[in-house]
Protein backbone atom coordinates (compact mmCIF):
# COMPACT_ATOMS: atom_id res chain seq x y z
CA UNK A 1 0.00 0.00 0.00
CA UNK A 2 0.97 3.65 -0.39
CA UNK A 3 1.82 4.09 3.32
CA UNK A 4 4.23 1.14 3.17
CA UNK A 5 5.82 2.48 -0.02
CA UNK A 6 6.38 5.88 1.58
CA UNK A 7 8.04 4.31 4.63
CA UNK A 8 10.25 2.08 2.46
CA UNK A 9 11.36 4.97 0.24
CA UNK A 10 12.05 7.15 3.30
CA UNK A 11 14.23 4.40 4.79
CA UNK A 12 16.19 3.97 1.54
CA UNK A 13 16.74 7.73 1.10
CA UNK A 14 17.32 9.15 4.61
CA UNK A 15 18.71 12.50 3.35
CA UNK A 16 15.86 13.19 0.90
CA UNK A 17 13.36 16.00 1.57
CA UNK A 18 9.62 15.41 1.93
CA UNK A 19 8.91 17.00 -1.46
CA UNK A 20 11.39 14.67 -3.19
CA UNK A 21 9.96 11.64 -1.37
CA UNK A 22 6.49 12.57 -2.66
CA UNK A 23 7.78 12.48 -6.25
CA UNK A 24 9.27 9.01 -5.73
CA UNK A 25 5.96 7.41 -4.67
CA UNK A 26 3.19 7.21 -7.32
CA UNK A 27 0.11 9.32 -6.54
CA UNK A 28 1.62 10.56 -3.25
CA UNK A 29 1.42 14.19 -2.17
CA UNK A 30 3.66 16.21 0.14
CA UNK A 31 0.88 16.38 2.76
CA UNK A 32 0.40 12.59 2.66
CA UNK A 33 4.14 11.90 3.06
CA UNK A 34 4.37 14.33 5.98
CA UNK A 35 1.33 12.79 7.71
CA UNK A 36 2.62 9.22 7.27
CA UNK A 37 6.02 10.14 8.74
CA UNK A 38 4.33 11.85 11.69
CA UNK A 39 2.09 8.85 12.38
CA UNK A 40 4.63 6.05 11.90
CA UNK A 41 7.85 7.90 12.59
CA UNK A 42 10.69 8.74 10.24
CA UNK A 43 12.53 5.43 9.58
CA UNK A 44 15.67 7.33 8.61
CA UNK A 45 15.74 9.09 11.99
CA UNK A 46 15.11 5.81 13.81
CA UNK A 47 18.00 4.13 11.97
CA UNK A 48 20.33 7.04 12.85
CA UNK A 49 19.41 6.82 16.54
CA UNK A 50 19.90 3.06 16.55
CA UNK A 51 23.35 3.40 14.92
CA UNK A 52 24.43 6.16 17.32
CA UNK A 53 23.34 4.14 20.34
CA UNK A 54 25.31 1.13 19.12
CA UNK A 55 28.49 3.16 18.50
CA UNK A 56 28.34 5.14 21.76
CA UNK A 57 27.65 2.14 24.00
CA UNK A 58 30.60 -0.27 23.54
CA UNK A 59 30.37 -3.62 25.08
CA UNK A 60 31.49 -3.34 28.68
CA UNK A 61 32.51 -5.83 31.21
CA UNK A 62 32.05 -5.66 34.88
CA UNK A 63 34.64 -7.03 37.27
CA UNK A 64 32.85 -9.01 39.94
CA UNK A 65 34.94 -10.30 42.77
CA UNK A 66 34.26 -13.86 43.66
CA UNK A 67 35.05 -14.15 47.37
CA UNK A 68 35.25 -17.92 47.22
CA UNK A 69 37.28 -18.33 44.07
CA UNK A 70 39.38 -15.23 44.61
CA UNK A 71 39.06 -14.33 40.95
CA UNK A 72 37.02 -11.97 38.86
CA UNK A 73 34.26 -12.85 36.35
CA UNK A 74 33.46 -10.92 33.19
CA UNK A 75 29.84 -10.11 32.53
CA UNK A 76 28.34 -8.69 29.34
CA UNK A 77 24.99 -7.05 28.69
CA UNK A 78 22.29 -9.66 28.43
CA UNK A 79 20.30 -8.04 25.71
CA UNK A 80 20.76 -5.69 22.78
CA UNK A 81 18.55 -3.20 20.99
CA UNK A 82 15.11 -4.37 19.96
CA UNK A 83 15.11 -5.63 16.41
CA UNK A 84 13.00 -3.55 14.03
CA UNK A 85 12.33 -3.72 10.35
CA UNK A 86 13.74 -1.21 7.87
CA UNK A 87 10.73 1.09 8.33
CA UNK A 88 11.68 1.75 11.98
CA UNK A 89 8.52 0.20 13.41
CA UNK A 90 7.56 -3.30 14.41
CA UNK A 91 5.56 -5.17 11.76
CA UNK A 92 2.49 -5.48 13.95
CA UNK A 93 2.24 -1.72 14.53
CA UNK A 94 2.46 -0.83 10.84
CA UNK A 95 0.17 -3.62 9.72
CA UNK A 96 -2.46 -2.62 12.27
CA UNK A 97 -2.52 0.97 11.03
CA UNK A 98 -2.60 -0.08 7.38
CA UNK A 99 -5.39 -2.56 7.97
CA UNK A 100 -7.50 0.19 9.51
CA UNK A 101 -7.39 2.05 6.18
CA UNK A 102 -8.77 -0.93 4.26
CA UNK A 103 -11.78 -1.84 6.38
CA UNK A 104 -14.64 -3.16 4.29
CA UNK A 105 -17.51 -0.75 3.76
CA UNK A 106 -20.51 -1.69 5.86
CA UNK A 107 -23.75 -2.62 4.12
CA UNK A 108 -27.07 -0.78 4.45
CA UNK A 109 -28.84 -0.74 7.80
CA UNK A 110 -32.31 -2.27 7.59
CA UNK A 111 -34.73 -1.22 10.33
CA UNK A 112 -37.87 -2.81 8.86
CA UNK A 113 -39.01 -6.40 8.60
CA UNK A 114 -40.80 -8.18 5.75
CA UNK A 115 -44.02 -8.09 7.81
CA UNK A 116 -43.95 -4.27 7.75
CA UNK A 117 -44.13 -4.17 3.93
CA UNK A 118 -47.31 -3.68 1.95
CA UNK A 119 -48.14 -6.10 -0.85
CA UNK A 120 -47.08 -3.59 -3.52
CA UNK A 121 -43.80 -2.81 -1.76
CA UNK A 122 -43.06 -6.53 -1.48
CA UNK A 123 -43.77 -6.97 -5.21
CA UNK A 124 -41.15 -4.32 -6.02
CA UNK A 125 -38.55 -5.93 -3.75
CA UNK A 126 -39.28 -9.39 -5.19
CA UNK A 127 -38.75 -8.00 -8.69
CA UNK A 128 -35.47 -6.42 -7.59
CA UNK A 129 -34.36 -9.67 -5.98
CA UNK A 130 -35.00 -11.53 -9.22
CA UNK A 131 -33.33 -8.91 -11.44
CA UNK A 132 -31.20 -6.55 -9.31
CA UNK A 133 -29.67 -4.92 -12.39
CA UNK A 134 -33.06 -4.01 -13.90
CA UNK A 135 -34.04 -0.34 -14.21
CA UNK A 136 -37.15 1.16 -12.63
CA UNK A 137 -38.81 1.24 -16.06
CA UNK A 138 -38.12 -2.46 -16.64
CA UNK A 139 -39.53 -3.36 -13.23
CA UNK A 140 -42.53 -1.11 -13.91
CA UNK A 141 -43.19 -2.88 -17.23
CA UNK A 142 -43.19 -6.19 -15.41
CA UNK A 143 -45.56 -4.98 -12.66
CA UNK A 144 -47.77 -3.00 -15.04
CA UNK A 145 -47.00 0.42 -13.52
CA UNK A 146 -44.86 3.43 -14.42
CA UNK A 147 -41.20 3.86 -13.49
CA UNK A 148 -42.19 6.72 -11.16
CA UNK A 149 -44.58 4.43 -9.30
CA UNK A 150 -41.81 1.86 -8.83
CA UNK A 151 -39.51 4.55 -7.42
CA UNK A 152 -42.22 5.87 -5.09
CA UNK A 153 -43.06 2.42 -3.75
CA UNK A 154 -39.40 1.59 -3.18
CA UNK A 155 -38.56 4.93 -1.54
CA UNK A 156 -41.53 4.63 0.80
CA UNK A 157 -39.69 1.71 2.45
CA UNK A 158 -37.71 3.02 5.40
CA UNK A 159 -33.95 2.91 4.82
CA UNK A 160 -34.18 1.95 1.13
CA UNK A 161 -31.67 3.45 -1.30
CA UNK A 162 -31.89 2.57 -5.00
CA UNK A 163 -28.10 2.53 -5.36
CA UNK A 164 -27.92 -0.17 -2.62
CA UNK A 165 -31.01 -2.12 -3.68
CA UNK A 166 -29.15 -5.44 -4.09
CA UNK A 167 -27.66 -5.36 -0.57
CA UNK A 168 -30.94 -4.09 0.93
CA UNK A 169 -32.95 -6.95 -0.57
CA UNK A 170 -30.40 -9.54 0.55
CA UNK A 171 -30.42 -8.24 4.13
CA UNK A 172 -34.20 -7.77 4.39
CA UNK A 173 -35.39 -10.90 2.60
CA UNK A 174 -32.46 -13.07 3.65
CA UNK A 175 -31.93 -14.29 0.10
CA UNK A 176 -29.10 -13.40 -2.28
CA UNK A 177 -30.23 -11.31 -5.22
CA UNK A 178 -29.75 -13.27 -8.44
CA UNK A 179 -27.67 -11.39 -11.01
CA UNK A 180 -28.79 -12.04 -14.57
CA UNK A 181 -25.63 -12.27 -16.67
CA UNK A 182 -25.41 -10.60 -20.05
CA UNK A 183 -24.63 -12.41 -23.28
CA UNK A 184 -20.88 -12.02 -22.84
CA UNK A 185 -21.05 -13.56 -19.36
CA UNK A 186 -20.72 -10.37 -17.34
CA UNK A 187 -23.45 -8.82 -15.22
CA UNK A 188 -25.14 -5.73 -16.61
CA UNK A 189 -24.19 -2.89 -14.29
CA UNK A 190 -24.96 0.01 -16.62
CA UNK A 191 -28.32 0.47 -14.94
CA UNK A 192 -26.61 1.38 -11.68
CA UNK A 193 -24.74 4.25 -13.34
CA UNK A 194 -27.74 5.73 -15.19
CA UNK A 195 -30.62 4.97 -12.85
CA UNK A 196 -31.67 7.83 -10.63
CA UNK A 197 -34.17 7.93 -7.84
CA UNK A 198 -37.21 10.24 -8.00
CA UNK A 199 -36.66 13.84 -6.99
CA UNK A 200 -36.66 14.76 -3.34
CA UNK A 201 -39.91 16.60 -3.99
CA UNK A 202 -41.64 13.21 -3.93
CA UNK A 203 -40.83 12.87 -0.25
CA UNK A 204 -43.35 13.96 2.32
CA UNK A 205 -42.99 17.63 3.32
CA UNK A 206 -44.50 17.04 6.76
CA UNK A 207 -41.92 14.82 8.45
CA UNK A 208 -42.56 14.57 12.16
CA UNK A 209 -46.15 15.81 11.74
CA UNK A 210 -47.57 13.53 9.05
CA UNK A 211 -49.77 10.88 10.59
CA UNK A 212 -50.52 9.09 7.29
CA UNK A 213 -49.51 5.46 7.17
CA UNK A 214 -47.21 4.21 4.39
CA UNK A 215 -50.25 2.71 2.70
CA UNK A 216 -52.09 6.07 2.66
CA UNK A 217 -49.03 7.85 1.28
CA UNK A 218 -48.62 5.21 -1.39
CA UNK A 219 -52.28 5.58 -2.42
CA UNK A 220 -51.88 9.34 -2.77
CA UNK A 221 -48.78 8.94 -4.89
CA UNK A 222 -50.52 6.46 -7.17
CA UNK A 223 -53.46 8.85 -7.56
CA UNK A 224 -51.03 11.57 -8.62
CA UNK A 225 -49.39 9.19 -11.09
CA UNK A 226 -52.78 8.39 -12.63
CA UNK A 227 -53.62 12.09 -12.90
CA UNK A 228 -50.30 12.80 -14.63
CA UNK A 229 -50.93 9.94 -17.05
CA UNK A 230 -54.38 11.37 -17.90
CA UNK A 231 -52.91 14.82 -18.56
CA UNK A 232 -50.22 13.34 -20.78
CA UNK A 233 -52.82 11.41 -22.75
CA UNK A 234 -54.94 14.55 -23.19
CA UNK A 235 -51.90 16.46 -24.40
CA UNK A 236 -51.15 13.76 -26.95
CA UNK A 237 -54.76 13.82 -28.21
CA UNK A 238 -54.60 17.60 -28.60
CA UNK A 239 -51.35 17.35 -30.52
CA UNK A 240 -52.84 14.74 -32.85
CA UNK A 241 -56.03 16.77 -33.59
CA UNK A 242 -56.15 17.78 -37.31
CA UNK A 243 -55.83 21.44 -38.19
CA UNK A 244 -59.16 23.20 -38.99
CA UNK A 245 -59.88 26.06 -41.38
CA UNK A 246 -60.31 28.43 -38.45
CA UNK A 247 -56.64 28.07 -37.54
CA UNK A 248 -55.66 29.93 -40.74
CA UNK A 249 -55.80 33.69 -39.88
CA UNK A 250 -56.10 34.81 -43.50
CA UNK A 251 -58.96 32.41 -44.20
CA UNK A 252 -60.78 33.47 -41.02
CA UNK A 253 -60.54 37.11 -42.12
CA UNK A 254 -62.18 36.26 -45.43
CA UNK A 255 -64.94 34.28 -43.73
CA UNK A 256 -65.77 37.19 -41.40
CA UNK A 257 -65.74 39.66 -44.28
CA UNK A 258 -68.08 37.46 -46.34
CA UNK A 259 -70.48 37.03 -43.42
CA UNK A 260 -70.71 40.77 -42.79
CA UNK A 261 -71.36 41.56 -46.45
CA UNK A 262 -73.82 38.74 -47.09
CA UNK A 263 -77.54 39.58 -47.02
CA UNK A 264 -78.35 35.90 -46.47
CA UNK A 265 -76.95 35.98 -42.92
CA UNK A 266 -78.87 37.84 -40.23
CA UNK A 267 -77.27 40.10 -37.64
CA UNK A 268 -77.86 37.53 -34.88
CA UNK A 269 -76.14 34.86 -36.96
CA UNK A 270 -73.22 37.22 -37.64
CA UNK A 271 -72.77 37.80 -33.90
CA UNK A 272 -72.91 34.06 -33.25
CA UNK A 273 -70.26 33.37 -35.89
CA UNK A 274 -67.97 36.10 -34.54
CA UNK A 275 -68.40 34.78 -31.00
CA UNK A 276 -67.35 31.29 -32.08
CA UNK A 277 -64.33 32.57 -33.99
CA UNK A 278 -63.15 34.79 -31.15
CA UNK A 279 -63.91 32.27 -28.42
Automatic annotation (TrEMBL):
Gene3D superfamilies: Winged helix-like DNA-binding domain superfamily/Winged helix DNA-binding domain. Residues 179-203 have a biased composition (Low complexity). Residues 72-82 have a biased composition (Polar residues). GO terms for molecular function: DNA-binding transcription factor activity. Residues 32-43, 117-141 have a biased composition (Basic and acidic residues). Residues 116-157 form the HTH marR-type domain. Residues 32-142, 179-216 are annotated as: Disordered. It comes from the Archaea. Residues 56-68, 94-106 have a biased composition (Acidic residues). This is Winged helix-turn-helix transcriptional regulator. The lineage of its organism: Archaea, Methanobacteriati, Methanobacteriota, Stenosarchaea group, Halobacteria.
